[in-house]
Each structure stands twice: as C-alpha cells, then as structure tokens.
Design goal:
The complex is a heterodimer of chains A (about 240) and B (about 300). With about 240 residues, chain A is an alpha/beta fold. Chain A has a single domain, classed as Rossmann fold, CATH 3.40.50. Helix content of chain A is about 35%, strand content about 25%. Chain A has nine helices and ten strands. In chain A, the strands form two sheets. Chain A has a six-stranded mixed sheet with strand order 6-7-8-3-9-10, with helices on both faces. A four-stranded antiparallel sheet of chain A has the order 2-1-4-5, covered by helices on one side. In chain A, α3 runs parallel beside α6. The two termini of chain A are about 25 Å apart. Chain B has about 300 residues and is mainly beta. In chain B, the strands form two sheets. In chain B, strands 3, 4, 7, 10, 12, 13, 15, 17, 19 and 21 form a ten-stranded mixed sheet that branches. In chain B, strands 1-5-8-11-9-6 form a six-stranded parallel barrel. In chain B, a hairpin with a 2-residue loop joins β1 and β2. In chain B, α2 crosses α3. Chain B starts with a helix and ends with a helix. The chains are: A alpha/beta (about 240), B mainly beta (about 300). The interface between A and B is medium-sized, with 24 and 22 residues.
Chain lengths: ~240, ~300
C-alpha cells in the first residue's frame, strides 16, 4: 500500500528531521507510528500527504512513485490527512467541510453519522461554523471527521487523541477498530496513546529522525512497555530499544 | 418593467416573477410597480424623489420590497426613502440595488434611507448590490442610511456587495435609545480597480443600548477598500465593531476604527484583521481533493456567506 524508501527531510535552515527512513504500511492494516516528541513523526505524515517535500528518498503508494505529486494529486489518489492542529475557517460550517471531504452533498443523516463517530452530538454541530467558536477538542474531532468522510484508501491521523476528552477518545478508538475490522482502507496513526498502540496491527518507533523499531504489535509493544533501553525516552515514559 | 430590471431584481431581491406583500420597484428613476397592504402603506414624496413607507404598529411577519434598478448608462438616480416603523411592529425590508450599464457614460444610484423605529419595533433590513453589463463608464452606488431607534427597538442590517460596482461609498449612522439594538453584517468583495468605502457612526445614547458591527470583505486585483467605524457611548452600553478582510493580488485595505466612551459603564470593543488566506487553510482543503483555485473559491465564498 505505502512504502517509504530512505526518506529524508531537512528544515530550510539545514537541520535534519528525518534521516533516511524506511517504512512499509501493508494494505488494510492499522499502523501506529510512535516515538518521542520532536522525533520526526509529524514530518513523516506531512511528507506522505504532500504538505512537505522530501529532500531525499521515495514515496510509493500502491506501487506508484508519488514523491513528486502535490497535495491535491495525492488526495485524489486516495490519501487523506487529519492535521494535528485543526484548521479553522470563518464562514464554513461543519456540513460544508464534510461535504467537501465527501466530494458530494450529504444527507443530514450522513452528516450526523460522521459527526457521531467522533463523539459529537450532530444536531448541535451540523450548522456550526468551524471557527474560533469551537473549542480545541471540538475542532479536533471535526478535523478527524473530515478524514472519515473521505473514505480514503489511506487515512493518516496525526495525534488524534490530542485535546480530546476521555469519553470522546474512547469513541474514537472504537471508530478506528470498526474501520480496522471492516478492512475499509488503511490507517496510519501518529500516536503516543497506549490504547491506540494496543489496537495496532503494526508499530513503527521513530526517534531522532530514524526508525528505531518496526514490526507487529505483539513484538514491538512489549519492548515499549518494558522500557528496554535505546538511549531515548519513549512516549510511554520509558526507554525503547533499537530494532 | 423592462427585461433588464427583471433580471436585476432576481439577483438583488429574490424576485421570482412577482412579490408577495407590499413593494415598490424603482426603475431608472421612475416607479415600475407599487403595492401597499393593509398594514404597510407606500406613498410618493411630494417634495423630492422617493417614497414614505409606513408600517402600522403591531404588524408582524410582513415583508416590504423596495428594490431600485438602473438599466442603462447615463442614469444618475437619487432617491429619498423614509421608513416609519410603528410600535411593536416586526418586519423585513428588502432593498436591493442593481445597476446595468453597457454604454460609455456612467450609471449611478444614490439611495438615502432613513429609519424611524418606534418603541419595541424590530426591522431586518436586507440589501444586496450588484453591477452588470460591459460599460466603459463606471457604475456607482452610494447608499446613505440613517436610523433612529426608540426604546427596546432593534435594527438588523444585512448588506452584500459582491461584484460589478466600480465605486461605492456606504455611509451608515444610527442613534440608539434605551435598550435598543443595532446589528450590522456587511460583506463586500472588490475586484479589478473597484473601490469600496464604508463609514459607520453609531451613537449609543440610551442605557443598555448595544451595537454590533461586523464587516467581512475580500479585496482582489488592484481594488481598494476603506472601513471606518466610530462608536460613541454616552451611557451604560455595549459596542463592538469588527473588520475582517482577506487581501489578494495587489489590493489594498485600510481599517480605521474609533471608539469614544463618555460613560464609565460604556463597554466598547474593536477588532480588525487584514491578511491573505492562511496557507494552512488552503492546504487543508487541498487534502480534501480540491485544487488550490477551488480551495480559494470555497474559503472566500464561506467567508462572505
């Protein structure tokens, strides 16, 4: 489905954020990318979605080299991306955004279903503007709903848990599990949350711009939880080891 | 009523072949149709061009349409319309203006509206301006609105000017008595070398009166916009004005807010923001599959909605 080959990215100032990353995301799987803050996880997600351009390496999607494609072209090929920091729009409503995401007008019940999947009461939100009147958690959940609306081949969620209350987070985890069971698309989730790590098919640990460990959850998660050392702190507050 | 007027009315006043309720259609300085109802009387002024609209006290849920159309170049239309809204009435006034010009001469419409709201009256005033035609002469619309709001009355002004008007100078002033409320929602888009100027002056004279002025605008091409607001609070009151502008190409926008408080309990706020479309907004909509141009259109359409 998705293959990253020796992917590297530097900031304009020259600082190296990703240093030759190799990642494979199998079709129909839920893959979680985890690792300490500043390790390059969000940069990796942005490179896949086309928000940033790699300085070296290739991105293959369904066997096709999409490295040179822009954001729109990648979206049209079936890649969807939920921003870590939700974007706000004066004048655009929740329904407007979801219809743009779906690429078609939606029935009220369809909008309700999408908003309900992220733990929001649809009737209260359907005509709300996606502006500063929404709280951070509300905006975040609408952001996630736009990706669900796309029904994409590859859906990328960048720290979906950030800013979301416990109850909504539980609902979100259920939604990810439903998507996983239905084998509808492939999920790539950037997360620090143990509950999300625990539903992953595969886990990739990134730190200091390199992949420290990657493999099935059954193999990688115990290392994270046991705190095997590798010289950097893992997001669970423990050390992780080299692959 | 000629064909051009028919088309303009559809754009500015949601005309669908006829109006229900009271109406007065102004066409090139003359009257192209008029109807009064039991509660809303429309009469010509005797001393100058224009009409008096009198809404009976207690009238509820009625609409009155007073669109004005200029259908060719060389017309310079000036009209005085006065609205007398009776105590406790609750009505909607639709007052669009369309200018069509396809010659070399200018076309102009100046509408001078005065609103007198009696105690407890409520008015929603909807005004849409549009210019059409391929005139080399300019199209100008310069509306002046004066409002006098008695105790407990409220006036909501919803004004839109999206395209085709070369210059506009919109002046609005209001005086509010106790507990009266003024709500203004203005949306303007200018392109090419168009120019739009907006000037609000609001006097909050009554205890617990309030005004909320919000202007959203988009300036493209080499167009120029100016927004000026002045809220004067001389009693315990609340006033808020907001100018929010999206800038593109080589356009220019000037926002000049002014607040004057002459009472310790006057609470007045101004907000102004001018800038291009945020890059992250474009990126977000592009991740939904839109091109950059489509994303820009959606953002602007939503902003001006």
């Amino acid at each position: 489905m998705l293959q990253l080959e020796h992917l590297a990215w530097r900031l304009p100032g020259g600082e190296s954020i990703l240093k030759g990353v190799d990642v494979r995301v199998p079709a129909g799987k839920l893959v979680v990318v985890t690792g300490p803050n500043g390790g390059g996880k969000t940069s990796l997600a942005k490179l896949v979605a086309g928000l940033e351009t790699p300085t070296a390496g290739r991105i293959l999607f369904e066997g096709e080299d999409i490295t040179s494609l822009d954001i729109t072209q990648r979206a049209q090929k079936g890649i969807a991306y939920a921003f870590q920091q939700p974007v706000r729009f004066k004048g655009l409503t929740v329904r407007d955004l979801l219809e743009m995401a779906a690429g078609k007008p939606l029935q009220e019940c369809e909008v309700c279903a999408l908003v309900g999947k992220v733990g929001l009461c649809a009737s209260e939100y359907i005509d709300r503007e996606v502006d500063a009147s929404l709280s951070g958690g509300e905006a975040k959940r609408i952001e996630i709903a736009t990706v669900l609306a796309r029904e994409a081949k590859l859906s990328i969620f960048d720290e979906p848990e950030a800013g979301i209350d416990l109850w909504s987070f539980s609902k979100l985890v259920e939604t990810f599990q439903e998507l996983q069971k239905s084998h509808h698309g492939t999920l790539l989730i950037i997360s620090h949350q143990e509950r999300i790590l625990s539903i992953a098919d595969e886990i990739v640990v990134i730190a200091d711009g390199v992949v420290r460990e990657a493999g099935p959850r059954e193999e990688v998660l115990p290392h994270l939880l046991q705190g095997d050392t590798m010289g950097c702190m893992c997001p669970l507050g423990k050390e992780v080891r080299h692959a | 009523m000629n064909k051009v007027t028919d088309e303009l009315l559809r754009m500015v006043a949601d005309f669908k072949g006829n109006f229900t309720g009271a109406y007065n259609i102004r066409e090139d300085g003359g009257c192209a149709g008029r109807r009064s109802t039991e509660n809303i009387k429309i009469e010509s002024k005797q001393d100058k061009p224009g009409i008096d609209i009198r809404v009976a006290p207690g009238t509820k849920g009625e609409k009155v349409y007073i669109p004005a159309c200029v259908t060719h170049s060389g017309v310079d239309d000036l009209v005085y319309n006065d609205f007398y809204i009776g105590e406790g009435a609750d009505v909607v006034v639709v007052a669009g203006c369309g200018i069509h010009a396809d010659g070399e001469e200018e076309a102009r419409h100046n509408g001078i509206h005065r609103f007198f709201l009696e105690k407890g009256a409520k008015v929603v005033y909807e005004e849409k301006h549009v210019g059409t035609g391929k005139s080399t002469g300019h199209r100008h619309i310069d509306p002046v609105t004066e409002a006098f709001l008695a105790e407990d009355s409220s006036l909501t002004m919803d004004t839109v000017q999206i395209s085709g008007v070369d210059t506009t100078y919109r002046r609005t002033s209001a005086k509010l008595a106790a507990r009266a409320k003024l709500l203004v929602r203005e949306r303007i888009m200018t392109t090419g070398v168009e120019a739009a100027k907006t000037d609000f002056t609001v006097y909050l004279e009554g205890e617990d009166s309030g005004a909320d002025l919000v202007s959203r605008s988009v300036a493209k091409g080499r167009s120029h916009q100016e927004f000026t607001s002045r809220i004067v609070g001389t009693a315990r009151c609340t006033g808020h004005s907001e100018c929010d502008a999206i800038l593109a190409d080589h356009a220019t926008v000037v926002a000049t807010p002014a607040l004057e408080a002459a009472n310790l309990d006057a609470s007045l706020i101004h907000e102004a923001a001018i800038g291009k479309i945020a890059g992250e907004q474009l990126m977000k909509l592009r991740t939904l599959g839109l091109t950059e141009e489509q994303a820009e259109e959606k953002i602007i359409a939503g902003f001006l909605k």
